[in-house]
Amino acid sequence: MSVCINPQCSNPENQDTSLFCQSCGSELLLDGRYRVLKELGGGGFGKTYEVLDSNPQKSQTNQPIYKVLKVLLHNHPKYVELFEREVNVLSRLKHPGIPKVEPDAHFTFFVKNSDKPLYCLVMEKIEGLNLSQYIAQRGKCISQKMAIQWLMQLLRILEEIHHHNFFHRDIKPSNIMLRSTGQLVLIDFGTAREVTETYLSKQSSGGVTGVFSAGYSPIEQLNGQAVPQSDFFALGRTLVYLLTGKHPSELYDSHVDQLNWREAVPNLSAEFGDVVDQIMARLPNQRPSSAQVVLNELENVYHNLYGSDSFLDTFTVSLENENTDDMPTRVAPPNNPLPLPPKPESFAFAEPSQAIDTNFVEKCQTELAELIGPMASLICQKQLRKPQYFSNGSCQGTG
């Protein structure tokens, strides 16, 4: 099957040998080489598809080459800026834990009878599951040893990103893929930012938009003051999820402003627990200054826990006990702090229903309390008395 990417196409499915869509007339062989096979996902910004790369110069064997196509659905300047920023970031980063993007993988496509371009980006297809899917299918949390190994992998990826003066701003389990080899891959660089003088100037004047994923993003990021250490916070919260199987908001106690996660992890090492707590400290200046600082601490923790003669085996990835030799290379840590990116699409906190779910209200209150403290209860109750804030039982907000 060949899929048409025209957003207005009434019947996008075509035969795999067709050159033009039988419904709308748009071309099906994009950029002269990519044939869209199926839709993988979508949202307010755009859609992603699986594509077959038919460029004979790229194929060294007779094996088909499958990739991922990301298509921007809106031509708003802000969305285009975000899209092109992702292209810039991925084209400059080279690491096994980051999706590969070729120099000629960014192009525009015009559907039939339209003068508005669709912005397209083709990147490496990561075969595997994201960590939310992995934990769900596994049916249990990961071990402490695996958590340390995974944390080290992710720190190496962040080291590469921060070394190039970028930071990710949206680290969470669903944005980390696990290959069948055990290699972790950080995906979705749509909100990544580069630290430049322009960025720092905007940040100091409050001109940077906050990006926020409830339970994983630190408070400074919501305020448009993200730094490289903001990625560490999100990484720590991700580790908490992997070790407990619970969303961080489920473990947060608003009465004492504390994340009570340690008791949910059997036989947790106090040493390792301290490292995780340190990287997700509330204030950026309380977190480590670089990924290398955390890696050095983990080296000591791993040696003390497992008595390894060689620290190199902690870079060996495992799917619990199966080891591989796929190991990222070490790069130098960044010399200066990093920046933040633009605003994501609107999101709904709950599915529409006829009445406001009390469990949903409690969840909103808990997540808000983590940001502003006990006042969250008063604010939620006040908003509940304003029906215009709710539509069919869902609470709408923007990131």
Automatic annotation (TrEMBL):
* Gene3D superfamilies noted in UniProt: Phosphorylase Kinase, domain 1, Transferase(Phosphotransferase) domain 1
| Name of the molecule in the record | non-specific serine/threonine protein kinase
Keyword set includes Nucleotide-binding: yes
Q: Keywords for this entry?
A: ATP-binding, Kinase, Nucleotide-binding, Serine/threonine-protein kinase, Transferase
Question: What InterPro entries does the entry give?
Answer: DUF8082 (IPR058395), Kinase-like_dom_sf (IPR011009), Prot_kinase_dom (IPR000719), Ser/Thr_kinase_AS (IPR008271)
- The residues covered by the Protein kinase domain are 34-306
Q: Which Pfam families match?
A: DUF8082, Pkinase
One of the record's GO molecular function terms: protein serine/threonine kinase activity
EC number in record:
2.7.11.1
Q: What is the lineage of its organism?
A: Bacteria, Bacillati, Cyanobacteriota, Cyanophyceae, Oscillatoriophycideae
Reaction(s) catalysed by this chain, per the record, are: L-seryl-[protein] + ATP = O-phospho-L-seryl-[protein] + ADP + H(+); L-threonyl-[protein] + ATP = O-phospho-L-threonyl-[protein] + ADP + H(+)
